[in-house]
């Protein structure tokens, strides 16, 4: 279980004066500036949960992930993963953590992924049979049996992400941190990755924390959503609990069939009933209310906290 208590983190940077004179002056009188990246965060993450962590740019998501993976240590408060403190980087904890950054790869460009995987097997001291069994399981689930033997530079982006996912899970970590895992991937590859992550979470009870700006990732995976804004948690609950603001001048979008051809109409609440009465049930494809889809609700939250 992950327990975060009263966690704050401040970055310290120094104002940089321009020109040679400024650079020399800076050597003697540096003016510090403090950026409060996280402010008094409290969060408990149960084992086996699938959490979506979102927020506008600069909200503090990467900082939180860095604190959870022990890259930086808190300015105040605490982070505990089971009985460990991430910043102490104990080998026992590192073996329980897997990380994937969609924009950065841990693979070597000129080598096939299997070489990196063999190296990871030796870093994590994986017993040979266990390694082979896990590799077979992961490559089968991701349909990547052939991919791991090709040089990484010959793989497409989606194929490379699949190989990176195998690397981050080969040691069967208890916790998996994913940062923008579907960046630049087509819809079908996104779906196969969602299916894989849901299966991995179900089968191995892997706790998955996914940071993404892609709302589809959140819709497809997150059992619980945490929204960070300006370094604070502004929402922490199930997706269904997101606040829906139904304004009085709302409009509906009706998609329907006319002679088997799809059409759509944007209609006010007052005219909706009358219009629906002109259609038969099997003509109606869908009826949605403007402002009620997940993206719009989240956008409203972002706008309010700006
Ligand atoms: N190395 C650093 N030095 C100083 N300030 C930093 C540093 N890294 C991040 N910050 C600041 O800390 C705040 C939080 O940044 P962070 O990278 O955690 O946000 P984020 O939610 O991950 O954003 P994004 O969605 O753009 O990746 C921002 O105001 C950012 O400018």
Brief rundown of the structure:
By secondary structure, the chain is of the alpha/beta class. It contains 10 helices and 12 strands.
What's the average pLDDT? 91
The number of domains = 2
Could you give the order of strands across the largest sheet? 5-6-7-3-8-9
Task: Give the beta-strand count.
Answer: 12
Most strands sheet: 6 strands, mixed
Strand fraction: 25-35%
Q: Quaternary state, please?
A: single chain
The CA-CA distance between the termini, in Å, is: 32 Å
Query: What is the second-level CATH architecture of the largest domain?
Result: 3-Layer(aba) Sandwich
Uncertain regions: pLDDT < 50 for 5+ in a row?
A: none
**Which structural class should the secondary elements be placed in?**
alpha/beta
């Amino acid at each position: 279980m992950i327990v975060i208590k009263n966690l704050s983190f401040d970055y310290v940077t120094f104002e940089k004066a321009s020109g040679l004179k400024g650079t020399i002056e800076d050597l003697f009188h540096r003016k510090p500036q403090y950026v409060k990246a996280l402010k008094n965060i409290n969060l408990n993450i149960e084992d086996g949960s699938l959490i979506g962590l979102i927020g506008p740019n600069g909200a503090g998501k990467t900082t939180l992930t860095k604190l959870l993976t022990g890259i930086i240590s808190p300015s105040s408060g605490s982070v505990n993963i089971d009985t460990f403190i991430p910043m102490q980087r104990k080998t026992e904890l590192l073996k329980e953590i897997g990380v994937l950054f969609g924009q950065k790869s841990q693979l070597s460009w000129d080598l096939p992924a299997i070489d990196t995987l063999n190296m990871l097997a030796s870093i994590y001291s994986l017993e040979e049979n266990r390694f082979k069994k896990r590799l077979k399981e992961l490559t089968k689930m991701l349909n990547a049996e052939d991919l791991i033997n090709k040089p990484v530079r010959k793989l497409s982006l989606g194929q490379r992400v699949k190989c990176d996912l195998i690397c981050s899970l080969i040691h069967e970590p208890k916790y998996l941190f994913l940062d923008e895992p579907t960046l630049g991937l087509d819809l079908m590859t996104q779906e196969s990755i969602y299916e894989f992550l849901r299966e991995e979470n179900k089968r191995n009870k892997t706790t998955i924390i996914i940071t993404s700006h892609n709302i589809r990732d959140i819709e497809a995976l997150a059992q619980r959503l945490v929204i960070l804004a300006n370094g604070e948690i502004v929402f922490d609950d199930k997706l269904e609990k997101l606040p829906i603001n139904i304004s009085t001048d709302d409009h509906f979008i009706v998609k329907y069939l006319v002679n088997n051809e799809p059409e759509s109409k944007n209609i006010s609440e007052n005219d909706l009933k009358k219009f629906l009465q002109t259609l038969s049930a099997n003509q109606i494809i869908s009826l949605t209310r403007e402002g009620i889809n997940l993206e719009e609700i989240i956008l409203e939250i972002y706008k309010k906290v700006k």
